[in-house]
Amino acid sequence: MTSNLFPAVSATVAESVDAALVGELLGRYLVTLDDEVPDEAWARSLFTENAVVTFPVSRHEGRAGLAEWHRASLAAFAATQHLGSPAVVTVTGDRAVFRANVLTTHVHHSGGDRPPLFRAGTLASGEARRTAAGWRMGELSFRVLFTEGEPPARG
Question: What is the pTM of this model?
Fold first, then answer.
């Protein structure tokens, strides 16, 4: 007697593992924004070569220069903390789409007339692809759901 149960279970397990890896990729991105200085190795570990990242006030295309772009964005604040919900991930073969809620607290540099904190609740969404090096984000964007406080002045 043969059963078709095991191939279906194996596919489900594989998709669950891939979904967990993609969710971890987003989680690692958020934590490293607060705890590391983004460099080219950081960008390679998270993004595809032609990645597109969209913040509410700016956008960057391509992995080249992506770390520097993130460093410049983070330099507007004395510190940040990015808290992400578990990602909802749908895997289809070598592609995955994801979304998660992110609550970000930005600490202004001292000496200004702004309140010390600027908070934003956002919906992060994107797409990841399986590459030879593992899962990498090809698209990542943030849609603002609410803000509290004042953002930094634009230069």
Answer: 0.89
